[in-house]
Design a protein that fits this description.
This protein is of the alpha+beta class and 274 residues long. The chain contains 2 helices and 14 strands; from the N terminus they run ααββββββββββββββ.
Amino acid sequence: MRKTKSAFDNAYAYISVSILAGIIFILLDSIGLAASLRNGISYVFEPVSYDGTKIGTNVKEYLQNFVEMSEFMENYSKLKTDVYEKDINNAYYLLLKEENESLKKQLNLSDISKKYVECKVLGGNDSEYIKINAGSDDGVKQDNVVSIGNVYIGQVIKSDKAGSLVKLPLSKGSNFEVIVTERGVENAAISSSPAVLSKAVAIGTGNGIKVENISADANVKEGDVVVINDEKVGSYLILGYLVGLSDNPASTSKTGYVNPLINYDDLITVFVEI
């Protein structure tokens, strides 16, 4: 108990002395007598003050970086959202534009006496087929011809209620009787009786369309138009332009390839003849 009381008395004495000394220093400083002492203390503690200020500034700048980073991330997120919205609006506009152009081709170039179902391309199993969103509920069935205007796209090989699978002309096993012509085709429009330079056969190779059995004596050239004239298609439909024509005088026939008018990978809207 005596030790505790003694420690308490000592602490009380230190506090009292410190308060008294502080009051004295304040009074002396108020009348200018403690200026030299204050300057000395300031000089002694100036390095500590400088280091403390520097550390405080660094901490402030570090925390400010977090604030600025947060604002940057917020602005970046907003900008990204704006870009997504513009991309969506642009994609929608391009889709409407493509559909409008496809409808114009269909109305201007197709056989208006026939009935067609407009449908969208959903994707392909591979480069030889595409899927469309029209099926038996829409009147689509196997062997229906798919086209845009009078450009041949393919034929339906399988159909269910909601969709169908279309075989493209470059698919392996595809073959058509075709004619090669240079006249009767203007802006993808075919006359009722195009001038026939040569009959031939178009065969799908999996990654292209090969044209065989072109008459060796025929006056065909690169850029002539390859047109399907086959019973299973039922009407004149364009495949594309003749390219890669062989030049072998000893051969009894010529061969070449078709450069399609349509990029099958870019198809969005097609029409099924029903």
